[in-house]
Amino acid sequence: MTVEPRAALDRLIAALEAHHHAVATRRSDDDPAVDDAYDVLADAYEVYEESLATVFGEVTPFYLADEVDDDDDDDDEDLEDIDFDDDLDEAGESVEEDEPQPAQQR
Prior knowledge:
By secondary structure, this protein is mainly α. It has 4 helices and no strands.
C-alpha cells in the first residue's frame, strides 16, 4: 500500500519539528528522546521518499547514512597521523629536480 506523498510530507514535517524540539530541550548528551525522534524522522523520510518514487517517479537529493561502525573512527584517526604538508613538500622537490635547468651563460 502506497502512502500519498502529501500525507507522507506532512508526517515528515511533523517528524522534523519533533526532532528539533527533542534536540532543543535535550536533558543530557545521551537523551533517549533525541534518539527516538531521530528514528521517527528517519522512518518518515523513507516513507516520503518511497511515496514520491512510487507516485511521481521522483526522488529527493538526500539519503540516509548507514550506521557508523567503530572501525570507521579508526580510519579517521589514521588520517590524522598523516602529515600532508610534508608529502606536498616532497612532491614539489621531486618535480623541481626533474625540471630542465636554464642554460648557463659563459
